[in-house]
């Protein structure tokens, strides 16, 4: 990657990491499902009138909208509202890599390689340590809800493998639009909507950041990088999201990082990084082995 594009990848990781701090601020202003509904409304309108519909069958747009937009973010927002720390949430949510590999093996018949199994096992061990440490001092409900959000993310990743959207930004705008009505209906049935009457600049800022900066700008730049480079080159930068997330939560929210949680976080990141690094090394080795084809053949 060129230095400019490396900086773009780092910017996206920082935006997505800091997003968890903003989510905490937004949840101080709104109940979780209502906040999620407002986020997707802001992400979809007015962008949906300018980007055009993606060249993807409606069934995949609706499926990803329900699984990713409604289920995943409802679990995540409710988990954060239940007391799950922002920094740890940014880390635990990366267990979506584990769920994606498992679901892909079951549904897509993709057999994981030994190095992937080893990496997943290491990441599971790290998340188990976090669960144990977190459970010693706090209820596990928030943690389990964030794990459920990661599982939904894994399902949506498999659905997106089927959908194969050519334009990630356009696809996310329409996925956001699908999520709006179900989320508002859930909020109407289960939450107090009086927060809409007391909307202030903190709430507006939180919605704006999560919808326009994290969703539209973040996915737009990420999709641009994926179109320019192989996924094995771009994907490892997502491992920096929990690094930025945990540092931001410590710096802005004063969240405590115990030695065990920090060490376990390192174990999780190592487990997630091993398959990525091994995949890049194998791809380079394969490229070196390919014979040169004489011109004209």
From TrEMBL:
Entry keywords, A to Z: Membrane, Transmembrane, Transmembrane helix
Keyword Membrane: yes
Transmembrane spans: 7-27, 33-51, 58-80, 86-108, 115-134, 140-159, 171-189, 201-226, 233-253, 259-279
The keyword Transmembrane helix is annotated on this UniProt entry: yes
EamA domain mapped to chain residues: 6-131, 141-273
Topology term for the membrane: Multi-pass membrane protein
Domain of life: Bacteria
A GO CC term assigned to this protein in UniProt: membrane
Lineage: Bacteria, Bacillati, Actinomycetota, Actinomycetes, Pseudonocardiales
Family according to the record: Belongs to the EamA transporter family.
Name this protein carries in UniProt: O-acetylserine/cysteine efflux transporter
Subcellular compartments: Membrane
């Amino acid at each position: 990657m060129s230095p400019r594009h490396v900086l773009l990848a780092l910017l996206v990781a920082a935006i997505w990491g800091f997003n968890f701090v903003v989510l905490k601020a937004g949840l101080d202003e709104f109940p979780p499902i209502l906040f999620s509904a407002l986020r997707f409304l802001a992400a979809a309108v007015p962008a949906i009138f300018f980007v055009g519909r993606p060249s993807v069958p409606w069934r995949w747009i609706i499926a990803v909208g329900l699984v990713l937009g409604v289920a995943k973010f409802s679990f995540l927002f409710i988990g954060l509202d239940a007391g799950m720390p922002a920094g740890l949430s940014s880390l635990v949510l990366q267990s979506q890599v584990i769920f994606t590999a498992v679901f892909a093996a079951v549904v897509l018949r993709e057999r994981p390689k030994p190095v992937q199994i080893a990496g997943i096992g290491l990441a599971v061990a790290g998340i188990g340590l976090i669960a144990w440490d977190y459970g010693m001092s706090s209820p596990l409900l928030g943690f389990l809800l964030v794990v459920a959000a990661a599982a939904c993310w894994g399902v949506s990743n498999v659905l997106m493998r089927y959908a194969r959207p050519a334009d990630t930004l356009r696809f996310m705008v329409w996925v956001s639009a699908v999520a709006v009505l179900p989320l508002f209906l859930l909020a109407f049935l289960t939450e107090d909507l009086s927060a809409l009457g007391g909307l202030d600049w903190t709430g507006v800022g939180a919605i704006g950041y999560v919808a326009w900066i994290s969703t539209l700008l973040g996915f737009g730049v990420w999709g641009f990088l994926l179109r320019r480079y192989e996924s094995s080159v771009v994907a490892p930068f997502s491992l920096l999201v929990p690094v930025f997330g945990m540092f931001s939560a410590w710096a802005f929210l004063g969240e405590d990082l115990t030695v065990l949680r920090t060490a376990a976080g390192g174990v999780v990141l190592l487990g997630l990084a091993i398959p990525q690094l091994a995949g890049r090394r194998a791809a380079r080795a394969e490229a070196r082995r390919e014979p040169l084809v004489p011109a004209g053949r």
